[in-house]
Amino acid sequence: MSDQPPVPDRKPLSPAAQRALAEAEARRQAAAAEAGSEARAKELQGPKGPEPTRYGDWERKGIASDF
Q: Region (Disordered) spans which residues (predicted)?
């Protein structure tokens, strides 16, 4: 045991810092809720199979071109 009182680990946060942390947490929760509720819409008349633009190529009517 020590004769000295325990030292707090951190300095107390200023009111502005506490507000900033609360706002950041609210933004994180809103982003998580938005991402969770958003289901990807099914693509209509899109390409069959993997996306042809994944390698930077564009395909129209069977003709592929890369830019």
A: 1-67
